[in-house]
């Protein structure tokens, strides 16, 4: 009887140990299953709130597409795909981390490629790293003659006519692929230029009426994007209501700035150079306030991004088209305001000669107040559109774009609203088109080079007027 009782007492301990061992096995299998997740090979990948992209175009040293090559993705997720007729390949991934895309070493050697493996970072919280673009098409220092057919040839008895036809088809494919890239980059440049124009027009109006180059204008762009994030994600507003909320906050900030800072400085006859230094300090204060309240991560205004679709050779989505349409309508409205309304004519008069406008009975201070409100409202709207276009807004987004705004207004002509529009389009198109020939990280440098050349040939900008000094 005693022995039976001892055995019964041991059963709970054995059952507990068995349960713990089973849970350990389940945990190990769970960890194993999470590390063996599979990415999804897709024809075209668009980053959203739930997935990132690793993609590229496989070309040889002569820019001919490499067709049918196997590309293997490894990292937190893994998969395998083959390049299509234009050399394109893409994977959709759901986990953040480092991913390595690998092609066969023999294919890389036969086509004169720099390497057969490249690593990229995917961070869905950062709009600039949702899409990792992998390039194998840079020729290495020691390369063999590239194969025009796009794959290593193993048969030695092919006829010359077959080789010629293969080279011709590859050249046609490469030409069509490059043409599609040209149209895509031109489209992206126009979209980016329109959004840059919304930011730059307001900055140029402030300069025209006050002579002040505001270094804090970029933070007005950031403010608009962050207020849209607050409206959609925290206050659960519809996107259109959040955009209106952001514009109202931006306009109110322009009014407060003018009444509390710039109007008192003007009344004390503080020079524009000193005021410009104040804008630099204000820019730093606002940046750190944004970082303190919203953190250093990118904030997504919307939780999902529309899937892309084709318009001829161009890949786009509904949000981009709507944003471009809004930018065009607003720019037309600002132009109508400046040239067809009484207040707009007064604004242009103050921009041309503030003293003469005041002597003619125009209330210069009222005009400047309206310009500050309009300028900051336009910047806030551009922040909303840019946040949607880039899938997020960060605490320093406006600061990154500030140099391009100054380039646009200087290129178009300081103090001219139409000049800011044209200059923004030129900067946007040149920046995006230049990535066809130079690394993507250097695309802004090409736009600034265009700015320097134009200023050397025409210092007053495209639409500016020569002014006699002294």
UniProtKB/TrEMBL annotation:
One of its GO terms (biological process) is amino acid transport. Residues 142-174 have a biased composition (Low complexity). It is a multi-pass membrane protein. The keyword tRNA processing does not apply. The keyword Ligase does not apply. GO terms for molecular function: carbohydrate binding; transmembrane transporter activity. Residues 131-140 have a biased composition (Basic and acidic residues). It holds the Pfam family BPD_transp_2. Keywords: Amino-acid transport, Cell membrane, Membrane, Signal, Transmembrane, Transmembrane helix, Transport. Residues 131-174 are annotated as: Disordered. InterPro entries: ABC_transp_permease, BCAA_transport_permease, Carb-bd-like_fold. The chain crosses the membrane at residues 186-207, 238-256, 277-298, 318-339, 370-389, 444-463. GO terms for cellular component: plasma membrane. It comes from the Bacteria. Residues 1-38 form the signal peptide. It is found in: Cell membrane. Belongs to the binding-protein-dependent transport system permease family. LivHM subfamily. This is Branched-chain amino acid ABC transporter permease. It comes from Bifidobacterium tibiigranuli.
């Amino acid at each position: 009887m005693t022995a039976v009782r001892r055995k019964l007492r041991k059963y709970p301990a054995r059952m507990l140990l068995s349960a713990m061992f089973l849970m350990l096995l389940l945990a190990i299998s769970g960890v194993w299953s999470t590390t063996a997740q599979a990415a999804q090979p897709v024809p075209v990948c668009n980053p959203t709130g739930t997935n990132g992209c690793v993609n590229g175009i496989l070309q040889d040293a002569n820019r001919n597409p490499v067709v049918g090559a196997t590309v293997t993705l490894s990292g937190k997720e893994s998969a395998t795909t083959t390049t299509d007729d234009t050399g394109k390949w893409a994977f959709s991934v759901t986990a953040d981390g480092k991913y390595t895309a690998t092609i066969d070493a023999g294919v890389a050697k036969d086509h004169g490629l720099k390497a057969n493996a490249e690593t990229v970072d995917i961070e869905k919280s950062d709009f600039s790293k949702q899409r990792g673009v992998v390039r194998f098409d840079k020729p290495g220092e020691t390369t063999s003659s590239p194969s025009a057919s796009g794959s290593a040839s193993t048969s030695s008895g092919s006829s010359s006519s077959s080789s010629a036809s293969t080279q011709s088809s590859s050249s046609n494919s490469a030409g069509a692929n490059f043409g599609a890239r040209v149209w895509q980059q031109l489209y992206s440049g126009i979209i980016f230029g329109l959004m840059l124009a919304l930011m730059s027009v307001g900055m140029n109006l402030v300069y025209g009426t006050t002579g002040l180059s505001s270094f804090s204008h970029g933070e007005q762009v950031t403010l608009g994007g962050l207020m849209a994030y607050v409206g959609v994600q925290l206050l659960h507003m519809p996107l259109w209501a959040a955009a209106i909320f952001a514009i109202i906050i931006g306009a109110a900030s322009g009014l407060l700035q003018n009444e509390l800072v710039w109007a008192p400085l003007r009344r004390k006859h503080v020079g524009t150079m000193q005021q410009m230094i104040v804008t630099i300090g204000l820019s730093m204060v606002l940046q750190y306030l944004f970082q303190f309240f919203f953190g250093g991560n990118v904030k997504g205004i919307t939780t999902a991004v529309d899937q892309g679709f084709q318009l001829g050779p161009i890949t786009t989505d509904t949000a981009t088209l709507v944003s471009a349409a809004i930018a065009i309508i607003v720019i037309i409205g600002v132009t109508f305001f400046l040239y067809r309304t009484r207040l707009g004519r007064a604004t242009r008069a103050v921009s041309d000669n503030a003293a003469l406008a005041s002597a003619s009975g125009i209330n210069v201070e009222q005009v400047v107040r309206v310009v500050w409100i309009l300028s900051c409202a336009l910047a806030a709207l551009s922040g909303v559109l840019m946040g949607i276009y880039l899938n997020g807004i960060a605490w320093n987004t406006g600061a990154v774009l500030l140099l391009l705004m100054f380039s646009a207004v200087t290129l178009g002509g300081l103090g001219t609203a139409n000049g800011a529009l044209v200059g923004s389009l030129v900067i946007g198109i040149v920046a995006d088109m230049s990535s066809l020939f130079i690394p993507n990280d250097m695309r802004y440098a090409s736009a600034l080079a265009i700015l320097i050349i134009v200023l050397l040939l025409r210092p007053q900008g495209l639409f500016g007027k020569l002014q006699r000094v002294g």
